TrEMBL record:
It comes from Arenicella chitinivorans. Its cofactor is [2Fe-2S] cluster. One of its GO terms (molecular function) is 2 iron, 2 sulfur cluster binding. This is Ubiquinol-cytochrome c reductase iron-sulfur subunit. PROSITE patterns: RIESKE.
Length: 211
């Protein structure tokens, strides 16, 4: 029987011991290959894990409203977008009714806002003078320029009640972010979910209200 094994091995040009050694080395090589493959895959899997920066970019943002005076505006960043916080003066609020006939969607039926901000001032009625709005033109995503002064303006017109003007293609919005008729943009600027408590506004959360 042993002679047959030796004869068979010799026919392949290799002894029985050589064949055993080859099987052993092949097993080791395969093992290292599997380990190497695991190390090669690990960085790819880790690269698919969101970074803390990416997670934080979508996190709620807070701001102290007590630091904003009537008629003043500040911008904060939320989800990579500029968000306007404008405390409108009494004169600014009165101007919202004066431009209704010039607006494409005065009731905000086609735009994006929480249900509690779908009104003439597009605000939470607990703080009606406060405009919280994504300052992104709904035409091609440019950043509109604020025009807060009441009165003649080269871009907003001779009887301007204040608003926002997009320098890219000339779209105009009132001080509630509602788009004017006959401009490239066709929808009002978006209002993000927000909640107010003790003069602190949290953008990105609606305080349990339906958005």
């Amino acid at each position: 029987m042993a002679d047959n094994q030796v004869s068979s091995a010799n026919a392949e040009g290799m002894s029985v011991e050589d064949k055993k050694r080859r099987r052993f080395l092949t097993g080791i090589t395969a093992g290292f290959g599997a380990v190497g493959g695991a190390f090669a895959v690990t960085p790819f899997v880790l690269s698919m894990t969101p970074s803390e920066r990416a997670k934080n970019a979508g996190a709620p943002v807070q701001h102290d409203l007590s630091k904003i005076q009537s008629g003043q505006m500040v911008k904060v960043e939320w989800r990579g977008k500029p968000v306007v916080l404008l405390k409108r003066s009494d004169e600014m609020m009165a101007g919202l009714d004066k431009v209704v006939d010039k607006l494409a969607d005065p009731d905000s039926l086609s735009s994006s806002q929480p249900v509690y901000a779908q009104n003439n001032s597009r605000s939470d009625q607990s703080s009606p003078a406060l405009l919280v709005m994504e300052a992104v033109c709904t035409h091609l995503g440019c950043s509109p320029v604020e025009k807060l002064a009441i009165g003649p303006d080269p871009q907003m017109g001779p009887d301007s009640q204040g608003g926002f003007f997009c320098p890219c293609h000339g779209s105009k919005f009132d001080l509630a972010g509602r788009v004017y008729k006959n401009v490239p943009a066709t929808t009002n600027m978006s209002v993000p979910p927000f909640a107010i408590a003790d003069d602190i506004i949290t953008i990105g959360e609606d305080g349990g209200r339906n958005a």
